[in-house]
Specification:
5 helices; alpha+beta; 258 residues; elongated
Length: 258
């Protein structure tokens, strides 16, 4: 009887221990999943804030040009008022005023989308000109100087791109090369930019490294942000390991609807 009692006691204790262990594993898995979701949400929010600032730079530049040109035209017309329709100066003044109001509203909306950490409004000096593919050679030189040689192939007929797409293309290449340099210890990288009639195609390949494997495709914060950027323009984005080692990043951005 004593032996049976001890056996029953240990069986119950073991069952309780298993339940506690399973419960602990479940709670740990839930916490890890919650942390992963929070990290992904934070990455998307950070990239949206960055896009908002770049959008401000692109749009405000174009609106500023419109305002300046309208003001210049109004001043030119003022030199010969007799030959100018009476409503022309008023129309140009209205364009100027609308443009200035649009810039103020844009800054206000930017503050709502991407507020500063201290809650202050963004200043004009915070919005440096955004890079584009015309800065690709400088980017490649910096990456090469840091230790990663890069081969660049441009195919198709290069042409001016909309400012947002131009910046997005640059950011894709910048992020992929930076990841190859930091995470893969790659020996070499290749960048391919292909202009087609309807789209811009970008591919970045790296040779990888044996010591520090890359994270699984799509888990990096920068990769999540790039996917968001390309999706805005109705494009496709893919990042994954290559057979035999290394990493591949591909993007297709439509140009016909730009």
């Amino acid at each position: 009887m004593l032996a049976l009692g001890l056996a029953a006691f240990f069986a119950i204790a073991a069952a309780r221990a298993r339940r506690r262990h399973d419960q602990a594993l479940g709670e740990r898995g839930w916490l890890l999943e919650r942390e992963r979701q929070q990290a992904a949400s934070g990455a998307v929010a950070a990239e949206r804030a960055r896009i908002a600032r770049e959008l401000h730079d692109i749009v405000s530049h174009n609106v500023t040009v419109m305002v300046v040109q309208a003001g210049a035209a109004r001043e030119v017309l003022a030199l010969s008022p007799a030959a100018v329709p009476p409503d022309a100066a008023e129309a140009l003044a209205a364009v100027e005023g609308a443009g200035r109001d649009a810039l103020k509203e844009l800054r206000h909306l930017l503050g709502l989308l991407a507020p500063a950490a201290d809650g202050a409004d963004a200043a004009d000096d915070d919005f440096a000109p955004q890079p584009g593919l015309d800065g690709l050679s400088r980017l490649v030189d910096r990456i090469a100087f840091a230790g990663l040689p890069v081969d660049v192939l441009i195919s198709g007929e290069p042409r001016p791109l909309p400012a947002g797409i131009d910046t997005t293309a640059y950011r894709i290449i910048q992020e992929a090369l930076t990841n190859a340099l930091k995470h893969a210890q790659a020996a070499r990288a290749e960048v391919s930019v292909r202009y087609t009639e309807r789209s811009l195609r970008i591919e970045i390949l790296d040779s990888g490294g044996p010591d520090r494997p890359r994270p699984p495709a799509g888990t990096g914060r920068g990769l999540l942000g790039l996917h968001q950027r390309v999706t805005v323009y109705g494009g496709d984005f893919d990042a994954r390991r290559r057979f035999g080692g290394g990493f591949r990043v591909r993007a297709r951005i439509p140009l016909d609807a730009a």
